UniProtKB/TrEMBL annotation:
It comes from the Bacteria. This is Lipoprotein. PROSITE patterns: PROKAR_LIPOPROTEIN (PS51257). It comes from Pseudoalteromonas rubra.
Length: 193
């Protein structure tokens, strides 16, 4: 009997672990725009966009990536219930021995020499907000798209703001969708008086 109870307890704990494990969505990033005066990074994907607050050095490093070859990596990205997103972005210089001028520029931007890779790397935690895109954005696209795995909240309801894109401007209009269960519970509580 004890063995059966132990087996059931192990089975239930395994089910609970699977139940609470985050669901991952693959997002394909196809462009980015750095607005250095306000410290913002605007990232575009197929049907959504992300707006991140970044520091000046990270913005300059991203702009430098248009001229210098870096290997980007994206880790631990998580979309939260309030539609904020958080994750870690790393830029690793592809060449082992940069010119002295480039090396000084990298060091001034906060790059450090990775002892294992023997290359310069900059790692930054980014936090921002997710929006849904309507229309085509008038931004420069990446030559090579990047895939990112994003952990989704377990009870995700679509609360993304809307971005209405026109050739001249990008207008961000936040729209909040209240889940129907919440409305039903409110009506029942009001009527149950």
């Amino acid at each position: 009997m004890k063995k059966l109870l132990l087996l059931i307890a192990l089975f239930i704990s395994g089910c609970t672990t699977e139940l609470w494990a985050p669901e991952y969505k693959q997002e394909v990033i196809d462009g980015f725009y750095v607005k250095s005066d306000s410290g913002e990074l605007f990232v575009t994907a197929s049907s959504s966009a992300y707006l991140f607050k970044i520091n000046k050095n990270f913005g300059e490093a991203l702009t430098l990536s248009r001229e210098v070859d870096f290997y980007p990596s994206f880790n631990d990205f998580e979309l939260r219930k309030d539609n904020t997103i958080i994750g870690v972005v790393s830029l690793t210089l592809l060449t082992e021995e940069p010119s002295p001028e480039l090396e000084n520029q990298l060091l001034s931007l906060g790059f450090k020499k990775d002892e294992l890779l023997k290359r310069y790397r900059l790692t930054n935690l980014v936090e921002g907000k997710r929006f849904m895109v309507e229309g085509d954005l008038p931004l420069e696209k990446l030559e090579k798209r990047q895939r990112i795995a994003i952990a989704q909240p377990s009870t995700f309801s679509q609360t993304a703001g809307k971005i209405v894109a026109t050739p001249a401007t990008i207008v961000i209009d936040s729209v909040v969708v209240v889940p129907a269960v919440f409305i039903g519970a409110t009506i029942m509580a009001a009527g149950g008086g």
